[in-house]
From TrEMBL:
PANTHER family: MULTIDRUG RESISTANCE PROTEIN. Signal peptide: none annotated. This is Protein DETOXIFICATION. It is a multi-pass membrane protein. It comes from Manihot esculenta.
Length: 495
C-alpha cells in the first residue's frame, strides 16, 4: 500500500510539475511577446505616423484640388498615381537597399558604415532623379500614348512639370529615412513630417482656396512642404547627433558604387513592381467608357487605400529593422519571432480599418468631391476597397521581412508572376470581356495580391534562419564592415 501511495504521489507531483512548467512557459512566452511588441512599436508607431504624414501631403492636395473640378482632380490624381507613382516607387526602392545594409550593420555594431552607405545611396538616387525627370516633362504625351483622355492628359502634363522639385526631394529623403530607421531614430522624422503637413494644409488653403492659384498653387505648396521635410532631416543628421554613424562627407562613398547599385536596383525592382501594379489599374480604368467619373472614383478609393497602406508601412519599417538588426547580430530565432509578433499586430489593425471602410462606404467619397455621380461610383467600390485594405495589412510586413533578410531578387520574381502574369490579365478579362468595368479590374488586382501573400508566407515558413544570419555576416564583411567583435556571440547563438 505504501508503494502504491508513493506511486500516486509521484504521479501527482509529476502532473503538478507539468502544470507549473506549463504556466511558467506561458508566462515566459507572454513576457517575450510583450518585450518584442514594445521593440516593434518603438519603431512602428513613429514610422507609421511619418508615413501617414508624408503621404497626407498628396492626400491634402487631392482634397483641395477636388473642389476645383472633376477634370482638375482627375489630372492631379493621374499624375500622383501614374507619373509620381512610377517615380516614387523607383526612388523609394533605390533608397530601400539601405534597409538591408544599415539594419544588419547596426546589428553587427558597425555604425561607422552607416554614413558611407547613405552617401552612396544619395549619389545613386540623385543620378536616378536626373534620368527620371523627362517623365515629368513629357507627362502629357506619355499619358496620351497610354490612351488616357486628351483633356486630362494636357492638364496633367502642365501640373507634372510644376512638381519636378519634389522628385529631387525624394532622392534625398528616402536614404535619410533608412539611415534613421536602422538606428531606431524615428520620432524626429515624425515631428518634422507632421510639422510639414500642417504647413502644407495652410499653404493649400492660402494658395488654392484664398488666392485662387489653382493647380499651380497646389504644386508650389507640395514642393515647399517636401523640401521642408528633407532639410529638417538633413539638419538633424549633420548637427552632431550621430558621432559614430555620421562623420562627414567621405570619398569612401565613391567606392563599390557598382555593387551597391546592384542591390539598389534589386530593391527598386521589387518595390516598383508592387507600386506599378496599382498604376496599371488606374490606366486600365482610364480605358473604360466615361473615364472622368471612373478615374475619379478609383482615385478616391486608391487615395484612401494608400493612406491605410502608409500605416501598414510603419509595420513594414519596424519588421525590416528588427529582422535586419537580429540577423546582423546573429540572432535568427529572435528575427523569426519578431516576424510572427509584427504580422499578428498588423493584421489586427487591418481588420479595424476594413470595418471602418465598410461602415463609412457611403460617406468617405464626400471628403474628396461633391459630385453625386463620383460619390455614387466610389461608394460602389467600398467592398473592394475593404478587401484591399485587409490584404495590405499583411503584405507590407512580408515585404519588410524580405528587405530585412535581403530577399529582394526573389520577391521581384514573385511580384512579376502574381501581379503581371496572373492579376492584370484576370482584371482585363473581367473588366473588358465580361463588361464588369472597374469592379472586374479591381477583382484581378485582389487575386494577384492574395496569391502573392500566400507565396510569401510559404517562403517565410520554409526559410532557414540560421543560414540567413550567416548570409548577413557575409554581407557585412563584403560591404566593408568587420564582424570580429561579435564573432563569439554569433557562434553562441548558432549553437
Amino acid at each position: 500500500m505504501e508503494e502504491k501511495d508513493d506511486s500516486v504521489q509521484e504521479k501527482r507531483f509529476g502532473i503538478e510539475m507539468q502544470v507549473i512548467n506549463g504556466v511558467m512557459g506561458k508566462k515566459k512566452m507572454v513576457k517575450k511577446s510583450w518585450d518584442e511588441s514594445k521593440k516593434m512599436w518603438e519603431i512602428a508607431a513613429p514610422a507609421l505616423l511619418t508615413a501617414v504624414a508624408q503621404f497626407s501631403i498628396g492626400f491634402v492636395t487631392s482634397a483641395f484640388v477636388g473642389h476645383l473640378g472633376e477634370v482638375e482632380l482627375a489630372a492631379v490624381s493621374i499624375v500622383q498615381n501614374v507619373i509620381e507613382g512610377f517615380v516614387y516607387g523607383v526612388m523609394l526602392g533605390m533608397g530601400s537597399a539601405l534597409e538591408t545594409l544599415c539594419g544588419q550593420a547596426v546589428g553587427a555594431g558597425q555604425l561607422n558604415m552607416l554614413g558611407i552607405y547613405m552617401q552612396r545611396s544619395w549619389i545613386i538616387t540623385g543620378i536616378t532623379a536626373l534620368f527620371l525627370a523627362p517623365f515629368y516633362v513629357f507627362a502629357s504625351p506619355i499619358l496620351q500614348l497610354l490612351h488616357q483622355d486628351k483633356g486630362i492628359s494636357k492638364l496633367a502634363g502642365r501640373y507634372s512639370i510644376w512638381v519636378i522639385p519634389q522628385l529631387f526631394a525624394y532622392a534625398l529623403n528616402f536614404p535619410i529615412q533608412k539611415f534613421l530607421q536602422a538606428q531606431s531614430r524615428v520620432w524626429i522624422m515624425t515631428i518634422i513630417s507632421i510639422a510639414a503637413l500642417a504647413i502644407h494644409v495652410l499653404l493649400n488653403w492660402v494658395l488654392v482656396t484664398k488666392l485662387d492659384h489653382g493647380l499651380v498653387g497646389a504644386a508650389v505648396a507640395g514642393n515647399i512642404s517636401w523640401w521642408l521635410v528633407v532639410l529638417g532631416q538633413i539638419i538633424y543628421v549633420v548637427c552632431g547627433c550621430f558621432p559614430e554613424a555620421w562623420t562627414g562627407f567621405s570619398w569612401s562613398a565613391l567606392k563599390s558604387i557598382s555593387s551597391f547599385l546592384k542591390l539598389s536596383l534589386a530593391s527598386a525592382v521589387m518595390l516598383c513592381l508592387e507600386l506599378w501594379y496599382f498604376t496599371a489599374v488606374i490606366l486600365m480604368v482610364g480605358w473604360l467608357h466615361n473615364p472622368e467619373i471612373a478615374v475619379d472614383a478609383v482615385s478616391i478609393c486608391m487615395n484612401l487605400q494608400l493612406w491605410t497602406l502608409m500605416i501598414a508601412l510603419g509595420f513594414n519599417a519596424a519588421i525590416s529593422v528588427r529582422v535586419s538588426n537580429e540577423l546582423g547580430a546573429g540572432n535568427p530565432k529572435a528575427a523569426k519571432f519578431s516576424v510572427v509578433v509584427t504580422l499578428l499586430t498588423s493584421t489586427i489593425s487591418g481588420v479595424v480599418f476594413t470595418a471602418l471602410v465598410l461602415v463609412t462606404k457611403n460617406d468617405f467619397p464626400k471628403v474628396f468631391t461633391g459630385k453625386a455621380a463620383v460619390i455614387k461610383e466610389a461608394s460602389k467600390l467600398g467592398y473592394f476597397l475593404a478587401a484591399t485594405i485587409f490584404l495590405n495589412s499583411i503584405q507590407p510586413v512580408l515585404h519588410g521581412v524580405a528587405v530585412g533578410a535581403g530577399w529582394q531578387f526573389l520577391v521581384a520574381f514573385i511580384n512579376v508572376g502574381c501581379y503581371y502574369i496572373i492579376g492584370l490579365p484576370i482584371g482585363a478579362v473581367l473588366g473588358y470581356k465580361f463588361d464588369l468595368g472597374v469592379k472586374g479590374i479591381w477583382s484581378g488586382m485582389l487575386a494577384g495580391c492574395l496569391l502573392q501573400i500566400i507565396i510569401l508566407i510559404f517562403v517565410f515558413l520554409r526559410a532557414n534562419w540560421k543560414k540567413e544570419a550567416l548570409k548577413a555576416e557575409e554581407r557585412i564583411r563584403t560591404w566593408g564592415g568587420s564582424v570580429e567583435p561579435r564573432q563569439s556571440s554569433f557562434e553562441e547563438n548558432m549553437n
